[in-house]
Amino acid sequence: MDVRTERHQPDYVLFIAVLMLTGIGVVTVYSASMVYDIHQGLSPDHFAIRQLVAAILGLAAMGSCTFIPYHVWYQHAPRLMLAALGLLLVVMIPGIGHRSLGATRWIGTTSVHIQPSEIALTALVVYLSYLLTRKLPILRDLRRTFRPAMIMVALTIGLVFIEPDMGTALCIFLTAMVLLFAAGVPGKPLGITFGASVLFGLLGARMAEYRSSRLVAFFHPFQHPKSSGYQLIQGLTAIANGGLTGRGFASSVSATGYLPEAYTDFIFAVFTEEWGWLGDLGLLAIFAVVIWRGFHIARYARDRFGSLLAIGLTASVIVQTLINLGAVTWLLPVTGIPLPFISYGGTDLVMNLAAMGILLSVSRETELELPEEDTLADIISVDEIRATRREVPDRSRRSPGRAHVARLSNLRTSPFRKTGPSDRGASLKQADRPISLSWRASRETAATKRRDERSRKPGGPFRRHKR
Q: Its membrane topology, per UniProt (predicted)?
């Protein structure tokens, strides 16, 4: 049996932590929305039941994604990204896009609708992982790697920003930056892009009055206690009232009408008031477990695509959590980003659970020990590099820069292509080292040499640790 098909049980620590967050979210939504539902003439558990239904759908999606080999996402990444962009365009069509609170972010009726921007975030992580894996041999060629990646990121952010939804656009940008950095993209273009984006973000905040008012409320909330600073002040009051141990379940005063829509973006304030700062420590500890297991899976993933996919999905949870908690605790301006798994929101919950399912799928093919090599020979064979070089004139060989990158860009770079023994670097020692490879790729090349040396010893070329 091919080693790539050997799988084991998923990461149950991550699975249990996600289940705990989902359960806490449903219970907290019920507590935070109960009084609001009664005032609206609805059942006290109206929003809690909707959140529970979304949780059931999300858990079903997580279970399905767990047992779907994550290699499937590599094969369909471009189609998935195109579908996400299509949904972002459809939401702008009058009569199809649902408008609420001055923004058109949803597709569907007032009772059942989806938010395409949440789908676009996960789709972009999958696509960038695919692109940065496929472009590994020419990773240092910014024109062929960094530029197409940023074009897709900018297109996605632009469509989300038009809705308008600056908070989600910020999450998409920061997640993409983390993924590009982890993939080995040089720091200089990332720094320039980040600096330019900060300037564009400030300009975007000035373009709309409600964004400007949020900045004013962030710097001087107590000067506007009845307008732009009202929600932040009430959230801080709820956190202060929680104390060390909290008031108890369903005993939040802020959720009785003082804190607007307490079951959405500011649900952490309600949770703190009910369970206190000790409850906050427990909640943050569960988030820390999710993040720890996500990076653990990324570190022990058996190939580059799985590693980047795990990093991107984990980074999306980190970014959303930090932005939400920063806004509620007065560390960042209010941006309208929900707290993952906790805040009310069907599409957000389903997509986060589906993302965790993909992460669990990656965990089913990790090593027990840190791999000594990544499968560079499975990404691109040495024979292909040498054959391509033979076709290049000697004068191009003497000026390696652009010509060398052009040669590598024509190679097939699927990380899951089966290769024979001759493709696995039998003559790797005689092959020249590609000058455009990143530090990670150089490490892969050196490790592949060691693997070839071991393959000549008794015991076979591939010895795997099984659970």
A: Multi-pass membrane protein
